[in-house]
Specification:
alpha/beta, Rossmann fold, 2 domains, seven-stranded mixed sheet, four-stranded mixed sheet, 13 helices, about 45% helix, binds NADPH dihydro-nicotinamide-adenine-dinucleotide phosphate, binds 2-oxoglutaric acid, nucleotide-binding, Glu/Leu/Phe/Val/Trp_DH_dimer, Glu/Leu/Phe/Val_DH_AS, NAD, Glutamate dehydrogenase
């Protein structure tokens, strides 16, 4: 199923409960603006390379639009459109004063040198610099991008518009980045997993966890949860699934990935190594954390999932057909728009610090992150139980209601 269709079905399920008219649904779903640009660069060997870049600005009724930049071969307009609207509901669920946007380039960054990625990023900024800005649309990292890409982006944007680090978040800490942004999404996933596990009456030491994806989000979630005494029995990346039934040594795995240019798990031998997708069908897993691509859990593989809870660290990992089956089976699914909201929350803290020319300590960032996510979690959990709906429907109901209210107050809808 295409990514936007998947998001639209989740939206519609909540819109039914909110009794929204069709015309209002259409207004809330339609992106404000979609931009597709040519990104051409000279490769190190002198060849010309051409890529397609996107920025979709979904909604700004609650504030400037916010969302990451993805560099991945599967990036296309449909995916970016879906991810942009997820950002709108996400910023609303955690009550940040933002709307939603997303961008990206259809490219495998591993096929380029560092200098080529820099040239590509700068060429992309040349194309979109006039539609992003600290009060309009603020990008950030996502799959395939990191603090270095954010630093190039900012530097190129400032050549047109002058000094203003608040144009982008997820920057290097020494270049106006927030302490704790890099760990924030994974830390948020970890702290929300702890809450779900407690609510389900399970104990950390006895709760086996499997994490798909060991990049920024997956590795920080693994670190947090291992430090919280959970056995992480499996992790995976494109090189395979790494399994140890009594729990992997996460510190050792993190050291291993640091040795590789691309942070791959490949070559780690202190555990059983299985094919990449084996992680999703391991028989004895209590909590599954997809932290890689969207659309990985579908009706074709959902029956093999043994977990009692799924924490959606990735955006859109469970499709609507699989979601319905999981709901019927009583599996608790913490939806992406809440589960991975730690990243955009600390991006907001970075933007606030940039605008105030002030720096917060790591302790303050972590405390405020925990506070923001706890409030959002309580609201979603209570809504789900009072309305007898899934956590996803509850989260969408809260997010959509807030966006609808802002549109009404602005006089855009009634
Ligand atoms: N970065 C952030 O702050 C936020 C990210 N997210 C979401 O979290 C997810 C991960 O993002 P992030 O960690 O930043 O991305 P990264 O690029 O840092 O890491 C992605 C990871 O996923 C792995 N991966 C890719 N395809 C597969 C596959 N088919 N099976 C198993 N592993 C796979 C990659 O493996 P390999 O290294 O081998 O390619 C890598 O380990 C995305 O869905 C993103 O949208 C959500 C909110 C914020
Ligand atoms: O940090 C941000 O602004 C956005 C992160 C993001 O793209 C996401 O939450 O999916």
């Amino acid at each position: 199923m295409k990514a936007f269709e998947s998001m639209r079905r989740f939206f519609d399920a909540a819109a039914e409960h909110l009794e929204l008219e069709d015309s209002l649904r259409e207004a809330l779903l339609m992106p404000r603006r979609e931009v597709q640009v040519q990104v051409s660069i000279e490769r190190d060997n002198g060849d010309l390379a051409n890529f397609v870049g996107f920025r979709v600005q979904h909604d700004n009724s609650r504030g400037p639009m916010k969302g990451g930049l993805r560099y991945h071969p599967e990036v296309d307009l449909d995916e970016v459109r879906a991810l942009a609207s997820l950002m709108t509901w996400k910023t609303a669920v955690v009550n940040l004063p933002y709307g939603g946007a997303k961008g990206g380039i259809g490219v495998d960054p591993r096929s380029l040198s560092k200098r080529e990625i820099e040239r590509m990023t700068r060429a992309f900024v040349d194309q979109i610099h006039d539609i992003v800005g600290p009060d309009t649309d603020i990008p950030a990292p996502d799959m395939g991008t990191d603090h270095q890409v954010m630093a190039w982006f900012r530097n190129q944007w400032e050549k047109y518009h002058g000094f203003n680090p608040a144009v982008i978040t997820g920057k290097p800490v020494e270049e106006y980045g927030a302490k704790g942004r890099e760990e924030a999404t994974g830390r948020g996933v970890g702290s929300l997993t702890v809450k779900v596990v407690k609510r389900l009456g399970m104990q950390a030491e006895k709760t086996k966890i499997a994490i798909q994806g060991f990049g920024n989000v997956g590795s920080h979630a693994a670190k947090y949860l291992a430090e919280s005494q959970f056995p992480i029995v499996a992790v995976s990346d494109t090189s395979g699934t790494y399994f140890r039934k009594d729990g992997l040594n996460i510190q050792e795995l993190l050291r291993h990935t640091l040795k590789h240019r691309y942070g791959l798990l490949e070559g780690y031998t202190q555990c059983e190594v299985m094919p990449r997708d084996a992680l999703l069908s391991l028989p004895d897993v209590d909590v599954l954390i997809p932290a890689a691509l969207g659309g990985v859990i579908t009706k074709d593989n959902v029956d093999k999932i043994s977990a009692k809870a799924i924490i959606e660290a990735a955006n859109g990992p469970v499709d609507p057909d699989a979601d319905a089956i999981l709901h019927e089976r009583g599996v608790t699914v913490l939806p992406d728009i809440l589960a991975n909201a730690g990243g955009v929350t600390v991006s907001y803290f970075e933007w606030v610090q940039n605008r105030q020319h002030y720096r917060w300590s790591l302790d303050r960032v972590r405390q405020e992150l925990d506070h923001t996510l706890s409030e959002a979690f309580e609201a979603v959990w209570q809504m789900a139980h009072s309305k007898e709906v899934s956590l996803r429907v509850a989260a969408y109901m809260i997010g959509i209601s807030r966006v609808k209210r802002a549109s009404e107050l602005a006089g855009l809808t009634s």
